């Protein structure tokens, strides 16, 4: 797979070299391809989404496993897992028809009025924007991170918790000193896995991000990501070079997700190994 | 350092409240999505939805019958390709698999299941659409099969490994050759678990859109053959949602409702199979 994609993207690699990832001009008619706006869009949208999603997910997972009554947990947990299985095109449908208009009419004017002095919140409220993409990605990765974190937390040996409780720790202190340190790398792995999902997410993002290959500090302006440009342009490429340039974007995307997933798997695996190694 | 008990208790309550708030923040948007699908979906769903193809813009009514047929055909084709490969691959890994080849297979299955589905679509495009010189339902099926294989492979392997060795040995002791033992004894006793994997894989590809974009492409009419572009429900939802027509939005919501219902019943059935094992 990797070889096939490298072969297909060779013409673009030869023609543009490193300029491919540093130039921001993308003009299919004149045959100029610089992928920087897409890289930028992917990185910003995924990282922001992850920053928002991770604390929420950890909080939710802790609540489900440690705090709420068992019966609630056994209802919420499968529900969250079921939600992780909703196809992304449906998130996109909701995003573009419900969330984007709401952002445009309510959230974005509010941000412009009150935080307009920051460069992140300048410009006109479009609705479809980087902000919308961040939100929709956050909503999508939260169930994934939550359910993996929950599994990691369940793997924490009971004796760890009991030791902390025996020392007179409150519930939060138990979580802080006994549970979180034990599950740390597993939770990190869960977050990275969520990042991998966010980076590769195509449909929902394509539908709400606005698809404009511009680099703008403002979160309110439309942007573009790597999977979105492939989704939008690959079926109707104008030249061999165009197709090849898109292939190269695909290749970059593939390599990035491979690295991310390998890292996440390694982290989660290391936790389950040490948990399987008995109580020590 | 020692802090007062009151402070520690207050801290505890604050963090508990925060965790509760986080859970609410997780569940509320998801609940909203669900409610919207229900509300918009049911009000847009009609008999026509299941029997008609989409009407041209400007006319009201119409349905997604061609998309449903397309999804059905492509998922069926993908299962025909993907399930045997996945299951036999898993038997190989579980029964014969030691050494470097199987590690390589396992690793690439894991990697394949982690790649974004749009990349799978690109690969199917270069492998099938380009040589065949046209978008086709066949290419879509292959792309879906490529997504199914790793899921089926890994879940089936896990299930086969849980079958106790004594069962295998009993069969082998009766003089049954290893390949028959694998098929008739091991696979059969792991069947409910394997079914779970299959259903989950089908549920997963039923909602896939990205790999179909430049393989099956989509079609406003009935797809006539496997070598031609074909419609699919997720593709239609995508195209109709980003189009500026109210009627099409309604169709998209109805499609979403149907898709979600199908997927949820698949995963619930999968859960049922998974549970009855214990």
Describe the structure.
The complex is a heterodimer of chains A (about 280) and B (about 280). By secondary structure, chain A is an all-alpha fold. Chain A has a domain of about 190 residues: MetI-like fold. Chain A contains eleven helices and two strands; from the N terminus they run ααββααααααααα. A two-stranded antiparallel sheet of chain A has the order 1-2. In chain A, α4 crosses α6, α6 packs across α8 and α7 runs antiparallel to α8. Chain A is globular, with a radius of gyration of 22 Å. Chain B is mostly helical and about 280 residues long. Chain B has two domains: about 40 residues; about 230 residues, MetI-like (MetI-like fold, Orthogonal Bundle). The interface between A and B is large, with 65 and 61 residues.
Q: What distinguishing features does this structure have?
A:
heterodimer, A: 280 residues, mainly alpha, MetI-like fold, two-stranded antiparallel ribbon, 2 strands, globular, disordered C terminus, B: 278 residues, 11 helices, 0% strand
Mean pLDDT across all residues of chain B, rounded? 80
Distance separating the two termini of chain B: 49 Å
Low-pLDDT segments of chain B: none
> In one word, what is the shape of chain A?
globular
Helix content of chain B: over 70%
* Count of helical regions of chain B: 11
């Amino acid at each position: 797979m990797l070889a096939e994609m490298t072969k297909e993207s060779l013409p673009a690699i030869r023609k543009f070299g490193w300029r491919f990832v540093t130039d921001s001009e993308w003009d299919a008619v004149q045959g100029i391809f610089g992928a920087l706006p897409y890289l930028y869009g992917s990185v910003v949208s995924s990282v922001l989404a992850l920053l928002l999603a991770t604390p929420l997910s950890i909080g939710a997972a802790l609540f489900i496993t440690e705090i709420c009554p068992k019966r609630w947990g056994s209802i919420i947990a499968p529900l969250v897992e079921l939600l992780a299985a909703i196809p992304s095109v449906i998130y996109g449908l909701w995003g573009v028809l419900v969330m984007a208009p709401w952002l445009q009419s309510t959230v974005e004017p509010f941000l412009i009025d009150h935080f307009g002095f920051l460069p992140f919140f300048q410009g006109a409220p479009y609705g479809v924007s980087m902000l919308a993409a961040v939100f929709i990605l956050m909503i999508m990765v939260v169930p994934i991170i939550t359910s993996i974190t929950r599994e990691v937390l369940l793997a924490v040996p009971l004796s760890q918790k009991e030791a902390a409780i025996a020392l007179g720790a409150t519930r939060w202190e138990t979580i802080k000193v006994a549970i979180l340190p034990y599950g740390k790398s597993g939770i990190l792995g869960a977050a990275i896995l969520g990042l991998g999902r966010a980076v590769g997410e195509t449909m929902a993002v394509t539908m709400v991000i606005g698809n404009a290959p511009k680099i703008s500090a403002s979160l309110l302006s439309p942007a573009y990501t790597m999977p979105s440009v492939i989704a939008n342009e690959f079926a109707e490429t104008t030249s061999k070079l165009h197709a090849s340039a898109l292939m190269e974007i695909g290749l970059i995307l593939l390599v990035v997700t491979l690295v991310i997933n390998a890292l996440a798997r390694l982290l989660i695996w290391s936790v389950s190994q040490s948990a399987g190694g008995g109580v020590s | 350092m020692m802090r007062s008990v009151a402070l520690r208790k207050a801290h505890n309550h604050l963090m508990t409240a925060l965790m509760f708030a986080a859970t609410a923040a997780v569940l509320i948007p998801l609940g909203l999505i669900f409610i919207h699908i229900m509300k918009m979906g049911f009000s847009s769903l009609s008999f026509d939805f299941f029997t008609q193809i989409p009407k041209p813009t400007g006319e009201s009514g119409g349905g997604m019958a061609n998309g449903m047929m397309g999804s059905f055909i492509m998922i069926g084709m993908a299962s025909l390709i993907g399930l045997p490969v996945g299951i036999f691959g898993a038997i190989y890994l579980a029964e014969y698999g030691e050494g470097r080849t199987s590690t390589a297979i396992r690793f690439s299955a894991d990697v394949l299941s982690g790649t974004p589905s749009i990349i799978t679509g690109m690969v199917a495009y270069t492998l099938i659409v380009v040589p065949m010189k046209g978008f086709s339902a066949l290419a879509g099926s292959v792309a879906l099969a490529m997504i199914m294989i790793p899921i089926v492979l890994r879940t089936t392997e896990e299930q086969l490994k849980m079958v106790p060795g004594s069962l295998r040995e009993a069969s082998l002791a009766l003089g049954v050759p290893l390949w028959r033992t694998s098929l008739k004894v091991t696979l059969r006793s792991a069947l409910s678990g394997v079914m779970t994997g299959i259903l989950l894989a089908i549920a997963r590809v039923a909602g896939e859109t990205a790999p179909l974009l430049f393989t099956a492409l989509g079609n406003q009419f009935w797809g006539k053959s496997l070598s031609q572009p074909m419609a699919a429900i997720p593709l239609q939802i995508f195209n109709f949602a980003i189009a500026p027509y109210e009627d099409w939005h309604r169709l998209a919501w109805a499609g979403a409702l149907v898709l979600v219902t199908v997927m949820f019943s698949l995963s619930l059935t999968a859960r049922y199979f998974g549970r009855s094992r214990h």
